[in-house]
Amino acid sequence: MASGDHRTRVTRLLIRRAFTGLLKEKPIQSISVKELCQRADISRGTFYAHYTDIYDLLGQLEHEMLTQVRQELSRMEAGVPEDARSLQVTASLFRCIRENADLCTVILGPWGDKEFLARLLSLGQEYCVEAYRKYFRSATPKQLRYFYSFVSGGCMSLIEDWIKGGMAGSEEELAQAAEQIMMHGVGYFQCGGEAQDAAGT
Which residues contact 113 (CB under 8 A, 6 or more apart)? Predict the structure, then answer.
């Protein structure tokens, strides 16, 4: 059983590497199973033992990453004080993105799934909104929803910039910079310069 599990992990890794490599070159609708199998040096039968088609492969890879984020957030919720939760949520998301850099790079590239990052960020909404509620006690639910929509859009752009820059800086540094921008706006420039450190500038 252990040997079989190892073979499965190796096969899936080969498929993933071949797939993300091809996605850097062309849109998913132009990738065939035959081409992917040739790139991965596996048979078509081996591919179909794990996935029904190319879109099922992408869906499973994205699902695995979303599951990882959910598990991370669940562990964090049990052990992090509420007043530090939004910062930890942001750092957790960045950490998962770094651990899945190959997939995230192509997802955010010209041939990627632009909706995936939005789904990823939406996982942190309930955790972050509760933390923001403590900061902005007079805010209405609608205002909090607007605020999260605005800052999550900014985080999406920040993540894209981070990936394009080779993920320089730690996820904790980037999360702190994002949190300061969220909470202080232009006052962020007087907050100590963590973004410059995180971006390596």
Answer: 58, 62, 107
Structure-token match 């929509």, residue found: 149
Query: Is residue 121 domain-shared with residue 76, that is, in the same domain?
Result: yes
Same domain for 111 and 146? yes
Total tally of structural domains belonging to the chain: 2
Render pLDDT for 147-187 as a digit per residue (tens, 0 to 9). Answer: 888 887 888 788 888 888 888 878 888 888 887 887 777 66
More confident residue, 159 or 50: 50
**Within this chain, do residues 31 and 78 fall inside the same structural domain, yes or no?**
no
Question: Is there a single domain that holds both residue 80 and residue 138?
Answer: yes
Q: pLDDT tens digits, residue range 107-128?
A: 777 777 778 877 877 777 777 7
Please compute the mean of the pLDDT values over residues 66-91 and round it to a whole number. 70
| pTM, two decimal places | 0.73
HEC sequence for 131-196 = HHHHHCCCCCHHHHHHHHHHHHHHHHHHHHHHHHCCCCCCHHHHHHHHHHHHHHHHHHHHCCCHHH
24: containing domain: 1-51
- Residue 155 CB contacts under 8 Å (≥ 6 apart), including other chains: 90, 93, 121, 178
Contact 50, 15 (CB under 8 A): yes
